[in-house]
Amino acid sequence: MRMNLHGANSSLLRAVRALVTDGPGMPQWTESADQPSLVVELFESVPWASLTFSGMRHRIEFRIDGPETAVRRARERLVERLREPELAVSGHFVADTELCDTARRFRKDGTMSLCLRLQTLTIEE
Question: Would you say the C-alpha torsion 85, 102, 20, 4 has a positive or negative sign?
Answer without folding.
Answer: negative
